Amino acid sequence: MQGLSPRERIIVAVDTNDLDKAVELVDDLRDHVGAFKFGLEFGTNLLVSLLRQRDPAAAHAELDRARHLFDRLDGRVMWDWKFKDIPNTMRGAAAGLLALGPELFTVHASAGVRGIRAAVDKRGKSSVLAVTALTSLDEDECIASYGTGSWETVLRFVYMARDAGVQGIVCAPRDADFFLRPDRHEAFANMEFVCPGIRPSWAATGDQNADRAMTPGEAAKAGISRMVIGRPITNFPEKFCYPHEAADLIAEEIATALGETTL
To answer: Do residues 15 and 236 make contact, with C-beta atoms less than 8 angstroms apart?
Structure first.
């Protein structure tokens, strides 16, 4: 996406089950990155915690902290629940997000064209991102799940999602590189590629498939618009004192790759 600064290209994955930790991360990082991703781990644990809390005062205090968290983000949210269900349920889930107004939310491309389109129809001002093959999958796992290898699966899902009217794609950076090449760019000119599997050279790969990963600099040069980065920032190496120091170093790498002088 044109016009994004290096910092705005970073989406921090808030993959924690601790609301206080999430608030702490947002408070430290919100002036250093573009948005924050909240997925199943955070959402499920918050909901269960609120439902099991028997003390009304404690429940009210926890809800207030959650409201504080999202109020401070002012919509700079990637709601990553990967909706996948029958079209009517996809439509209802997307409609339920309207009041929250996240900048981005995800569906899974394997829901099919009709299911994705149902969510797109109720997206409001949010952008819908279709998730393809998870970046942790190796070839055997992908074949077992979808009947084809990772690349064939991603290729099929990207074209399905485009036909369903999504605003963007979530895939591994090595996969996105194919669609962003000059000879194919026109077919995807109006779509954003938002990629996890981004690992700085100084960070551990973890459970990401290294064959499908890129560094932030490589991703920026490939034309990837935004990068979802979690553990290198949220579980930062010992050489940093705060998460925002890791985020700033990543933004500097992106800026250098793009030939920009400001973050």
So the answer is: no
Q: pTM of whole model > 0.85?
A: yes
* Count of all residues that appear for the chain in the document: 263
Q: Report pLDDT digits (tens) over 54-94.
A: 999 999 999 999 999 999 999 999 999 999 999 999 999 99
**Catalytic residues, which ones?**
82
7-258: which CATH number, 3.40.1170.60, 3.20.20.70, 3.90.870.30, 1.10.3660.10?
Answer: 3.20.20.70
